[in-house]
Amino acid sequence: MSAINNNCQYISKKQVKITFDGKTYQAYEGDTIASALLRNNIRLVGRSFKYHRPRGIYTCGIEEPNALVQIISEHNEPNTRATIKRVYDGMEIASQNRWPSLKYDFGAINNILSPIFSAGFYYKTFMGPKGFWKNLYEPLIRHSAGLGKPPKNFRSKSTHQYHNNDVVIIGAGLSGLAAAKKFINTKYKVLLIEQDSYLGGVLKNSNKVKTINGLTPQEWISETEELILNSKNITVLKNTLVTTYNFTNHLIALEDKFAGKKIDLNKSELTLHKIRTSNTIIANGHIERFISFRNNDLPGVMLASSFEKYIHRYGVVPEKEPIIFTNNSSSLSLLKKLISLGCKPKAYVDSRKKDNIETEIKKILRDSDISFFTDAEIEGCDGNKKVETITIRQGKSFTKLKSSMLCVSGGYNPDIHLFTQSKGLVKWDKNILSFKPDTPFQKTITLGSTSGNYSFKKLCDEINEKLSIFKTKKVSLDINLNVPNKFSIKELWETKKKNNSNWAKSFIDLHNDVTTKDLKQAITEGFDRIEHLKRYTTNSMGTDQGKISSINSLAIVSKMLKKEISEVGTTTYRPPYAPLSFAAIAGRSTYEFYDPERKTSIHSWHLKNNAVFEDVGQWKRPWYFKASENETMHQAVQRESKMLRENAGILDGSTLGKIEIKGRDALEFMNLMYTNAFTKMKPMTSRYAMMLGEDGMIKDDGIICKISDQHFIATTTSSGAPKVLADMEEYLQTEWPHLQVYLNSITEQFSTFNISGPKTREIMMKVFPDIDFSNDAFPFMTFKNFDYKETKIRIMRASFTGELGYEIYIPPKIGLELWEEIFSCGKEYNLIPYGTETMHLLRAEKGYIVIGQETDGTVTPIDLNYNWMIGKNKKDFIGKRSLSRPDTSREDRKQLVGISPINKKDIIEEGQHIVELNELPKKITNPIKYLGHVSSGYHSPNLNHSIGLAMIRGGKNLLGQKFFVTATGKTKNIPVEIVNPVFIDPENKRLTS
Amino acid sequence: MILIKCPYCGERDQSEFENGGEAHVIRPKNPESLSDKDWGEYVFYRNNPKGIFYERWVHSHGCKKWFNAVRNTSTDQILKVYKVNEKRPDLSEFQNTLKSPSGEPSVGSGNFAVKK
Ligand SMILES: [Zn+2]
Q: What is the pTM of this model?
């Protein structure tokens, strides 16, 4: 057994070196990994998915079920089809799914144990005991079953490109090129997409066509390609695979920019084309299918047209004396080609009756003296990790022949994947024994063998007729053939085994190791619907989607069920047509480009001062500031909280959402959107306000500044701002279009600082010596505008900590300058910066809620004891009516309370349950009564014990009562007392003086 | 991914839009005068037919305008778009492609890939 080279124009003479599993091999530029390995007589390239059986190269294209490899030199790219991937000098390749080596694979024991690995094996075997799946079975299965190893690092490697076209032609074979020719120099904007690096399809892959319009196929391709390239309205994409056909003629195609070249890490390897088109022409041909027989997976078994393609397209004859096994008329071209190269097939096995076989085939076989078996089939083949002997059955007699390769043709399937993705309907064609496109759902045209037309002679008429909807000239094709024009086929899906042994395997899905026996077993067990059967057996669920085998399995199943194939139906073909990596889909949306990071104008200062950041929406907010290298978060937060209540602290609140509301009807609008009443509110004052959903539940909160009846500024939570603005817009546009109100997001127009603590007034007076900060001149919840260094700033007296506090709004351009000025003035008062965690602790001490922490979409303002915020005299506002719904006004709803541990050393954890039991039973037999949960829990450095806010059923009436809080990993619960949620300064003296 | 024709901007990719549920559900003028049941109907209940559906869309990554559309929910074809202040088009304007009582359209639904 040895391969020979054939002269081939698509393969250069330039030699390149590649390594496969560490060994170096010579290949030619233009080779695929598969053609290079075949050239070097490598047949064994991988181990199968489940049984770890030795596997070789089965096909010569995208349909490959076996030859998946890992490209070590390309970031460990796994599951690469060796039949597609081009080689280059220095490429490093490794086989997959074997350990310790391809030849001696430990997992091959699965093959010996195979009788137990039948359909539904995983479902049946790994049922229990509890916990075994997660801890034992799954890791075990994941280790031993599978494909390649994922790359260790993610690298951005693709760009996206958008197209808008009148016509997209998928496939530049004979039909695609002829169709494109019709559009030359027309008004249509056309995109012609070819998966290979050369145009021509069947013309360059086989010997089937002798001449077109008097030219050799190659001359015709060159002539046509030149005309197309010179036509300004047609764009050609090579090395591009259409993977997806979506709704509204939306196509996704992936272009390999480095096919056959070493990847340049500075350039994008892939382009993902996103295409919208008015019309789609699918002309991507057909896929040959296999036949199931005993050991039809041994390395050396290959599809006949793939074998032919290796000769034509890659200039390698994998074996001089193969045996050809066919059930149809098309294998003649392979036979002719081999003979013309001086090779003599060992035998030609045709399952058709002698009378039905074309005279030309019979004549050639007779003339060349080749063993000819008619009405015969391959019983099976045998050998050690490769085909060595092949058994032919003819009637009752068996003939055993020696050959290292068996070329198989079980007929052809129109490549209907894209057509069915587009939701077109298919129908069964008895003449070609396959499904072909029938009713399109979108503007889709199929041409040539994709449409089920296997007659080259009829192609010209088909193209002219189907493309007559376009204003184009007629195209003429005068085709001379090397094969019979009339396609003839005999139904044959599986051959009979000589002996029935549990170990004899006849595969229906090579990729997922599904045997014909598995199909039978699944049907016996009741999985007789094709979609169920597919999932139960995993048939055609591999990365090849059963391209060479799925129709075979439908046929076998229909025979078992004694139904017509059209009754059994097909399974759903889903995108993508072939796997595409997440990196291709991600494009440039990776890392920081995936989700933009928003930083405040003070960010650089935070970095310099050892801030640890927290993500709030897209914002980076200081979480806490590390005073020293070894300070823990807990220590930092305790320190910051204590310092602020003793002296003063400052928080960068720039991330707070800010929305400007302006217009004639601004007051009316605000009265409708928020619970509060704004009518009597004085200009230049502010108010804490809440926004509800129409169901009465709290959506967002913030401080509303009233400048006048026609002008408000609303602040929102940091992450809620876009939603609040969108909701306001929605109501303005859809419910109240008569209101004249304009909304504007001004979040990024201001840097915002929240400064608070007992020393705040002194610091503010020092920073702004011209401003009167006395309590009378500048009372709580008022704001004023001031001139500051050629700009204006707004200062509001407000606080989220419970201490005296001010909020400063300043244009971000000079934000950092003012921030630093405040620090230099605040130094003598021990001013500290603090982060969001300290903010949360301080507000919890004060009993202030946080949206999303105390609230969860089921909490009303009444549940929080915030009745004072509800404008009861207002006729209407969003959610008002729902507050009086019976369920919303229930007395035993979960309500906000404070909790304090009775033993002051106990720690209250956030998220724990509140129960009546002081200890949980060892074995829980009855459900334990749940009263509520801890929504916030902190150690208060100012009270020197743990505190909590909790949502408890009927909590308002439980003040002073004793309950218990559960604790992580303990059955003993923590006794707590229900208290007022305001732990610090309940009289608000600090806020208002 | 379908194409949606914004009445203000023209045809754009679906990813630029957000769906706003059933259209022509008007917020009651006097919520207080409604019974709990009627108010509950307004807040919580929406139609979800298979077939012709009047629904709201917003061009959120574009002009941010709300508009209405008529969509066949079984085929995802958008049959008409119109502005919020325009009249609701009559159902008789649209051909309902639903044939069987189970609602499967003649072509293009889920697993019914083989022509019967
Ligand atoms: Zn728009």
A: 0.87
